[in-house]
DNA sequence: TTTATTAATCAGGTCCCCCTGACTAAAAAT
DNA sequence: ATTTTTAGTCAGGGGGACCTGATTAATAAA
């Protein structure tokens, strides 16, 4: 069990990181004002884009399952993405109840641009620090996955399997 | 300039961290369903609570300035917090145009509980790793502060000075 | 074939963040 | 004493993340 003071210190830094990140995003957001471009990749429309960029051509139902949302919420977000020309809807020919959702070229570009960007502040770290950071984050993420898995195995199955692995592919 | 592969890897881990964090929050949120309890400390109502827990008894105008929001937004969030009994409004006797906002006891407890919580996953790190993490986050946060400062010195003045230092006090 | 079950849809709602415009009341400046 | 500035308010709006309930169309099961 690690030293309490160190833990508090680290916890504070982590919160500070969240805060300053949020501020920087906010600034960028107001600077370019890229017409509603900015939204968390882990919710709503962003989540869908992320899931599709791993497995394109899912049905709405599949999306809803993987992302732990209701079919109605999913439909709403998909429609909004269609309006923004990021995805397309198309009736399945096999089962005409199903609607297949696909990324448009624009959507694909948006999604990969979103997650392929490497924050500038990483340039200020040494190779050693990067290694340390990677090792530490791996541990932290695994702890969090465990936590999620024990509390709700389904989520783990659905979301982690369907998106987390994707991130690894992208960055490794 | 550090190794590109390492940077990509670290960037991926960071994104993954954000994602899995979000998931864990979501889970906790649905589990307890603590009546609308959950909101980001870096926006809207949470931001105000955070600012007040450093400097209590600010006027709405002051809050708006420090948090880079319009007076109207500030008023809205303050009113919501009043309804939740987290802050109180009170006309200034010195300048009767001003409204002084103060944390209630409940508000104070809520705010400190919010930021004093130490994530469980830090227990899985060794003392050495904690030290490394602290050092790295310090660097990263400073880079981000610089970035914000160069792009908009006002924000830096307002928000960083009024909240970030507070976090340090809390955790050190 | 008739009865489920399934995939989607529409309608409507809750709450959040955040902004502009128009207007009052109080203090400061002229 | 009369303007002007300042701190707040109300009204209204835009967009976002979600959800429940009711309904339709298509497929699978009885």
Structure write-up:
- The structure is a homodimer of 172-residue chains.
- The first copy, chain A, has 172 residues and is mostly helical.
- Chain A folds into two domains: 38 residues; 133 residues, Orthogonal Bundle (Arc Repressor Mutant, subunit A).
- In chain A, helix 2 packs across helix 5 and helix 6 runs antiparallel to helix 7.
- The mean pLDDT of chain A is 87.
- In chain A, strand 2 and strand 3 form a beta hairpin.
- The two termini of chain A are 32 Å apart.
- The radius of gyration of chain A is 19 Å and the shape is globular.
- In chain A, strands 1-3-2 form a three-stranded antiparallel β-sheet.
- Chains A and B meet through helix 1, helix 6 and helix 7 of A and helix 1, helix 6 and helix 7 of B.
- The structure holds a DNA duplex (30 and 30 nucleotides).
Topology (SSEs and partners):
The structure is a homodimer.
Chain A: H1 4-32, H2 44-54, E1 58-59, H3 60-67, H4 71-83, E2 87-91, E3 99-103, H5 105-116, H6 127-151, H7 153-171
Antiparallel strand pairs in A: 1-3, 2-3
Chain A binds a DNA duplex (30 and 30 nucleotides) through α3 and α4.
Summarize the structure.
Two copies of one chain form a homodimer. Chain A is mainly alpha-helical. Chain A is built from seven helices and three strands, in the order H-H-E-H-H-E-E-H-H-H.
Q: What is the helix/strand order of chain A? A: HHEHHEEHHH
The profile of the biggest β sheet of chain A is: 3 strands, antiparallel
- Distance separating the two termini of chain A: 32 Å
Radius of gyration of chain A, in Å, reads 19 Å
CATH architecture of the largest domain in chain A: Orthogonal Bundle
The CATH topology of the largest domain in chain A is given as Arc Repressor Mutant, subunit A
Q: What is the CATH class name of the largest domain in chain A?
A: Mainly Alpha
Q: What is the total tally of β strands of chain A?
A: 3
| Secondary structure category of chain A | mainly alpha
Number of domains of chain A: 2
How large a portion of the residues of chain A is in β-strands, by DSSP E?
A: 5-15%
Q: Write down the overall mean pLDDT of chain A.
A: 87
Major sheet of chain A: order of its strands?
Answer: 1-3-2
The total of helices of chain A stands at 7
* Proportion of residues in helical segments of chain A: 55-70%
Q: By CATH's scheme, which homologous superfamily of the largest domain in chain A applies?
A: Winged helix-like DNA-binding domain superfamily/Winged helix DNA-binding domain
Oligomeric composition of the shown chains: homodimer
Overall shape of chain A: it is globular
Largest interface: A-B, 71 and 71 residues
- Please mark out the parts of chain A with pLDDT under 50 across 5 or more consecutive residues, or reply none: none
